Amino acid sequence: MTTNQSTEPSPAGILQMGTGFWASKILLTAVDFDLFTLLAEKKQLTAGELKQTLNLHCSDRNVFDFLDTLTGLGFLNRAGILETAAYSNSPDTDMFLDLKKPTYVGGMLKMLNNRLYGFWGTLEDGLKTGKPQNEAKHGENLFDAIYKSPELLEGFVNAMSGIQVGAFMAFAQKFDFSKYKTLTDAGGSSGLLSMVVANHQPHMSCVSVDLPAVTAIAEKTITKAGLTSRVKAVSGDFFNDAFPTADIVTMGNILHDWDEQQKLSLMKRAYAALPEGGAFIAIENVIDDDRKANVFGLMMSLNMLIETGTGFDYTFADFTRWAKQVGFSSTSLLPLAGPTSAAIAIK
Ligand SMILES: C[S@@+](CC[C@H](N)C(=O)[O-])C[C@H]1O[C@@H](n2cnc3c(N)ncnc32)[C@H](O)[C@@H]1O
Fold first, then answer.
1. Of 70, 96, 122, which residue sits at a domain end?
2. pTM of the entire predicted model
3. Structural domain harbouring 261
């Protein structure tokens, strides 16, 4: 990632990574302030205008430093300097961090700011005890703990959509759906994967299954997208209820939440819901078999220590071993977007 490639040892990479949380927190704070949404609407603003609109009570110097760091990091454009500067969005922040655009991915960044930034602060405790460091710290199931609060529930659902949308779009376009007609997405959250597949594959009908707290949100989203004839949201507990039968069963970032026995139990339930030739597909940050190239996947696995304690991300070799144990006849890996792949097992 940032290791020194030259032959001479240098502290530069170490110090850059060590202070990396400064840059991260500056970006997350800007997202939390909806700064990029404001700039998308106003096109450009001065530091003074931003200070007033965002209701900041620090010094002008602090505001310049905040905005100029965002400029230096490539998230803002700037014409002029200090009092004369006009700030505007970069192409990336304008497309992906304007709350009013369908391409918005800030839900995940807001969850990183409002939940995970603090929880990762006790990674040491997580590693020393093996216990989650979040709302579930005192023994509750993560989903029971966060779904009690409507704000946390909504934030979590938005975050899931933000992190997976690119991978789901790639999946809907790259996977060969020609042999299949129906899809069950287990743990489908807002129904995003089902909606993206239905949009790109007009012959497919999809069912998104999730806990009752999430179903109402999914139903609203599916209705808003005008896809109710081909996408249904149903309530179900994937450890206790049989999955709706389908030609394809997908799970996006589901297996990584659970320990190995629970992973196997979910894969067995998927197997039972499929016909011969049916496909079980896990869309996750599948770690490379050598466990060092997909650093994001490795960090996501540590994020599962923080979030669930016993969950972990896995390699394609792990997936293949489990798939064989369950009875699937073959497996393959389809790279999707960035660190995310589809691990596919055929019945
Ligand atoms: C990490 S999120 C992944 C959401 C979505 N599949 C994605 O890829 O973004 C895990 C999902 O599993 C759901 N879930 C957790 N326990 C469940 C259970 N016992 N039965 C059904 N869904 C469950 C959660 O509500 C949540 O939507």
1. 96
2. 0.94
3. 164-346
